[in-house]
């Protein structure tokens, strides 16, 4: 059962990589053939070994240090975020995921206020069809995270509560 979930995850991720990278037809075919070959590979005897090999392959596809397409995607995303002065963590929506809402509630007020200021500035620039000046774009740090550690803690607490059968500390309904 775990292997089936992993294969579904791998298939979705491969589709996302192919769509995001806008690869040409021959490279898409190469990805598909490589994917099928690795799924049918019989040299690994244990299901866990196959799982680890596929996870390693998937990691090499999405790691910008190892994959040219992932590196190009990261560069283009960085460029788009810098144009509006945003960080990657600013893109998380607290109305969509209540764990993010809880993580934002636990962060210090200064960090949340800075997030709101960046979002307001980005909305203002977008409405005016303008970008930040070049000198300010150079100062931006789009991949400096501020939310991931707190979000991981919230998700860990949620998983622990579910494992112990406890009730959540905060309301788990989407407005």
TrEMBL record:
The keyword Mitochondrion applies. InterPro entries: QCR7 (IPR003197), QCR7_sf (IPR036544). GO terms for biological process: mitochondrial electron transport, ubiquinol to cytochrome c. Keywords: Electron transport, Membrane, Mitochondrion, Mitochondrion inner membrane, Respiratory chain, Transport. One of its GO terms (cellular component) is respiratory chain complex III. Pfam families: UCR_14kD (PF02271). It is a peripheral membrane protein. It comes from the Eukaryota. SUPFAM superfamilies: 14 kDa protein of cytochrome bc1 complex (Ubiquinol-cytochrome c reductase). Its main location: mitochondrion. It is found in: Mitochondrion inner membrane. Belongs to the UQCRB/QCR7 family. This is Complex III subunit VII.
